[in-house]
Amino acid sequence: MPRKSAAFLLYRLTGDGDLEVLIAHMGGPFWARKNERAWSIPKGEYTDEDPLTAARREFAEEVGEPVLTGEILELGEFRQSSGKVITTFAAEGDFDPAGFASNTFEMEWPKGSGRVQEFPEVDRIEWTGPNRAAELLVKGQVPIVERLRETLLARGVLPA
């Protein structure tokens, strides 16, 4: 049985009608000096929990605010190269990245030192367009943004 994650992709439309998505730069020493392919959609693993509930919880933990939205879009499941399956939801909303506060995790760093340090799970978030998101997100999450864009086009939310 593959590991399961749930994700919540917040999006907004600019004054010009362009799509922007909220993405998160992964925290910790491994990702500190990386930019491209070092970003993620707020997500996390779950087991016996409803995927939407897990996606909302993970968004709040990684961004520091609950998802306050209207209509929830189910974007589907996306298999990652690791075999993990991400069930993804999206909704329109807005969030000021200045108000962001991530939860933390502990790990031994430097590895083998015996010293345990605390790091933020996410060290920064930002709004970006789909093309830039495709360059920044880990490769397996790029289809999620593409699915959102297709969904919004099909609903007439984005201009064709």
How would you explain this protein's 3D organization?
This protein is α+β, with helices and mostly antiparallel strands and 160 residues long. It has one domain (4-154): Nucleoside Triphosphate Pyrophosphohydrolase. The chain has helices at 51-63, 130-136, 142-154, and strands at 4-13, 19-26, 39-40, 43-46, 73-79, 85-92, 104-108, 116-120, 122-128. Strands 1, 2, 3, 4, 5, 6 and 9 form a 7-stranded mixed sheet that branches. Strands 7-8 form a two-stranded antiparallel ribbon. α2 (130-136) packs antiparallel against α3. The longest helix is centred in the middle third of the chain and has 13 residues, at 51-63. The radius of gyration is 16 Å and the shape is globular. 26% of the residues are buried.
